[in-house]
Write a structure and sequence with these properties.
128 residues, mainly alpha, Alpha-Beta Plaits, two-stranded antiparallel ribbon, 7 helices, binds iron/sulfur cluster
Length: 128
Amino acid sequence: MLDILENITKGKGKKGDIEELEHLAGWTKKGSLCGLGKTAPNPVLSTLKYFRDEYEAHINGVCPTGKCQDLITYSVNDKCIGCTLCVQKCPVDAIPFTPHEKHFINTELCIKCDACRAVCPEDAIDVR
Ligand code: SF4
Ligand code: SF4
């Protein structure tokens, strides 16, 4: 179950994963004699119950909350005023220094640390 969950968060989820998780969770509960085994699958079952659409979104390559690093990309939107704060905070020089102009992020270099989004005063960093 952990392998399946980790694959889903890395964008390697596939059709049938949700059903397989439900199948494994059910048999883990049925096959366990102690309370630990009977309740261990509950986090998976309850998140499947209340957040199934998020599982499906991840399997389709989208992280709705922008938290799974392998599924997101940082970019600069039109609100950018060219203040250069993001450039100064980026630890890998993924944003070229272009004062007073709209900035852009080199996604080849970006390590998705979130520093630029946190420092931007204009909400000009998109995470999708
Ligand atoms: S911090 Fe925000 S407004 Fe300033 S240059 Fe970077 S993206 Fe643009
Ligand atoms: S997320 Fe981090 S590494 Fe990527 S551009 Fe922003 S500051 Fe740089």
